[in-house]
From TrEMBL:
Gene: galK
Binding site for ATP: 80, 135-141
EC number: 2.7.1.6
SUPFAM superfamilies (alphabetical): GHMP Kinase, C-terminal domain, Ribosomal protein S5 domain 2-like
Chemical reaction(s) catalysed: alpha-D-galactose + ATP = alpha-D-galactose 1-phosphate + ADP + H(+)
Binding site for substrate: 46-49, 237
Signal peptide region: none
Protein name per Swiss-Prot or TrEMBL: Galactokinase
Record family assignment: Belongs to the GHMP kinase family. GalK subfamily.
Entry keyword annotation includes ATP-binding: yes
Pfam family for this entry, one: GHMP_kinases_N
Subcellular location: Cytoplasm
């Protein structure tokens, strides 16, 4: 090939031993354990989760690794390898929405959310290191929240089920960090399995593991980070969510999930014009999730391509959350040989996924880079999405009072 490999060195998860060593250097004692939680891409099912609908995300190999040790004095001490080199010290009993700025609001929010549920959790020393790119639409905040949620679950012997951990993390983001997100990113982070995509029902939180074998079919899934930073707290996301909720109410439905494709024409005729494209996107997107799952279940991952590209058109034309950079990346990838491509995540920037025959991957990545340069856009970053495991403990044999131990 005349092009070099677009994603040659995968930034794997941070090294467990190095994280443990850094924890000891910073906090002066050994951690009780080391946990990790991944970022995600969503294959299809965008802006459906807060409509009680369906999605098909998968965990990335990129993840947040967290070393943690329980403290008996009610202090929460946080240190991040991606931070400013300082340790943030908070009193667990004084945690309140809006009181913690910066990245620390995500881990602190999880501790707060657990206590809001009446669970007996106290302080901890935490050290975090992450390979999930921030601001790229790859759920770095969900990875951070979910790493803390799984660690606290064991440190304080809570025994919560995975969907409950996801709900706690989502509540932290909604009520503590002030981002009105749905539950998809947190469910993807805690429930994903290696080699699978996660078929999620956002109403029941039931999940099904759908085998997703890219390599065996000669495929690669590229992640093209447009470098356009999105911010879900800036109001556009909340406005879309409110529009969907208003439409459901006008139609007399619990949520837009309850509207099926055959019922769509009559429903659209009954709605004010500004809600029509929103509802059309959500209903057709839920149908695309079912199509995608059927194609994967039939052992035809290459047949996902057209579903991805149709999903992007719906996000661009109906939901209107794409931007010139994501549109250019999608169009260029498809023209250069991708089987399909779409923006992934909330939109307004972030990343595009492109399903490509392995042999075409270098040419697709090069074509997108060239098109971005020609348009005067910043060079996109390229990652490879490999369906990976969800959150969990990394050092099963680690010492310390974890697993079933309740605070005294
Ligand atoms: C963001 C949100 F956090 C998710 O809950 C979901 O709504 C997504 O945007 C759009 O599908 O990632």
């Amino acid at each position: 090939s005349r092009h070099s490999d677009p994603a040659p060195r995968q930034p794997a998860a941070p090294d467990t031993t190095a994280v443990r060593r850094e924890f000891e250097r910073i906090h002066g004692r050994a951690p009780h354990g080391v946990w990790a939680a991944p970022g995600r891409v969503n294959l299809i099912g965008e802006h459906t989760d807060y409509n009680d609908g369906f999605a098909l995300p998968m965990a990335l190999p990129q993840r947040t690794v967290l070393a943690a040790r329980r403290r008996a004095d009610g202090l929460l001490r946080l240190h991040s390898a991606q931070g400013d080199g300082r340790t943030t010290q908070l009193r667990v009993a004084e945690l309140a929405p809006g009181a913690v700025p910066g990245w620390a609001r995500y881990p602190a929010g999880v501790v707060w959310a657990l206590r809001e549920r009446g669970l007996p959790v106290g302080g901890a020393d935490l050290y975090l290191d992450s390979t999930v790119p921030t601001g790229a639409g790859l759920s770095s905040s969900a990875a951070l929240e979910c790493a803390v949620a799984v660690a606290y679950d064991e440190l304080y012997g809570l025994g919560l089920e995975r969907p409950e951990l996801a709900r706690v993390a989502q509540y932290a983001e909604n009520a503590f960090a002030g981002v009105p997100c749905g539950v998809m990113d947190q469910m993807a982070s805690v429930c994903s399995a290696e080699g699978h995509a996660l078929h999620l029902d956002s109403r029941s939180l039931e999940v099904r593991q759908v085998p997703f074998d890219l390599t065996g079919h000669g495929l690669r899934l590229l992640v093209l980070d447009t470098r356009v930073q999105h911010d879900l707290a800036d109001g556009a996301y909340a406005a879309l969510r409110a529009g969907c909720e208003r439409a459901a109410k006008l139609l007399g439905l619990g949520a837009l999930r309850d509207l099926t494709e055959p019922e769509l024409p009559a429903a659209l005729a009954a709605l004010p014009a500004e809600l029509v494209p929103l509802v059309r996107h959500v209903v057709t997107e839920n149908a695309r999730v079912e199509q995608a799952v059927a194609r994967l279940a039939a052992g035809e991952p290459e047949a996902l391509g057209p579903v991805l590209t149709a999903g992007h058109a719906s996000l661009r034309d109906d939901y209107r959350v794409s931007c010139p950079e994501t549109d250019l990346a999608v169009d260029t990838a498809v023209a250069a040989g991708a089987l399909g491509a779409r923006m992934t995540g909330g939109g307004f920037g972030g990343s595009v996924i492109a399903l490509v025959p392995a042999a075409a991957a270098p040419a697709v990545a090069a074509a997108v880079a060239e098109a971005f340069a020609a348009a005067g856009f910043a060079a996109p970053a390229v990652l490879e999405a490999v369906p990976s495991a969800g959150a969990g403990r990394l050092d099963r044999a680690g010492p310390g009072p974890v697993g079933g131990t309740r605070p005294g």
